[in-house]
Design brief:
CATH class: Alpha Beta
Bound molecules: D-xylitol-5-phosphate, zinc ion
Radius of gyration: 16 Å
CATH superfamily: Aldolase class I
């Protein structure tokens, strides 16, 4: 069967001085979602942007907002993100003591719920959480920064997660985040990825819209 992946450009690599221009470019491209990285300087050693910027993006963006929270105690802000018009809210497995409750709260507030896994966290820990999640974000770099190199053992994690999802018959999407480029797209789709987040490989390319199109058109049989 022919398979492709959906592309979610990461606005972390966009031009913050002309954010509306880059948001429009993504809207006019073949991208699926806008990926938005929120970092608190505690869960990860970097601070990105927060609510006022998401509010500004929401005003312009046509496509769904896929928000990746790299923050401690994400429960504090679930309602705030829902009110901002966020579509998918992803929390880190490593940041949630009561993950089941957090996922329920996200769904109850009308958003899709995602779980992100750091590179060292095994996918087997999600065995009893897949039904409660709409997407699993497998980090293929250590979270906190754009432009890092892809960690190769991610393929094995994707294959394992794909078979867990398929054998349970759930619809949970597999999203890969970090170091994704047109060069590893086919291999990621082949391993079982559904959504590919791409920051620098899109925004640092000569023609970002064409790069998104090229990745979205990568077919695997
Ligand atoms: C990293 C972020 C990523 C980042 C990806 O912590 O979660 O979404 O923007 O950037 P690239 O594609 O440049 O690795
Ligand atoms: Zn991300």
């Amino acid at each position: 069967m022919k398979r492709t992946a959906q592309i979610a450009p990461s606005l972390l690599a966009a031009d913050f001085g002309n954010l509306d221009k880059d948001v429009k470019m993504v809207d006019e491209s073949q991208a699926f979602w806008h990926h938005i990285d929120v970092m608190d300087g505690v869960f990860v050693p970097n601070i990105s942007y927060g609510m006022p910027v998401i509010k500004a993006i929401r005003k312009v963006a046509q496509k769904p907002l896929d928000v990746h929270l790299m923050i401690v105690q994400p429960d504090r802000y679930i309602e705030t993100f829902a009110d901002l018009g966020v579509d998918n809210l992803t929390v880190h497995y490593e940041a949630c003591t009561h993950l089941h409750r957090t996922l329920q709260a996200i769904r109850n507030s009308g958003m899709k719920a995602g779980i992100a896994l750091n590179p060292h966290t095994p996918v087997s820990l999600l065995e009893h959480s897949l039904e409660g999640a709409d997407l699993i974000c497998v980090m293929s770099v250590n979270p906190g920064f754009g432009g890092q190199s892809f960690i190769e053992n991610t393929y094995e994690k994707i294959r394992e997660l794909r078979s867990m999802i398929d054998s349970k018959g759930v619809k949970t999407l597999i999203e890969i985040d970090g170091g994704v480029t047109p060069d590893n797209t086919a291999k990621l789709v082949e391993a079982g990825a559904d959504v590919l987040v791409a920051g620098s490989s899109v925004f640092r390319s000569q023609d970002p819209r064409a790069t998104i199109a090229r990745m979205a058109a990568t077919e695997v049989y």
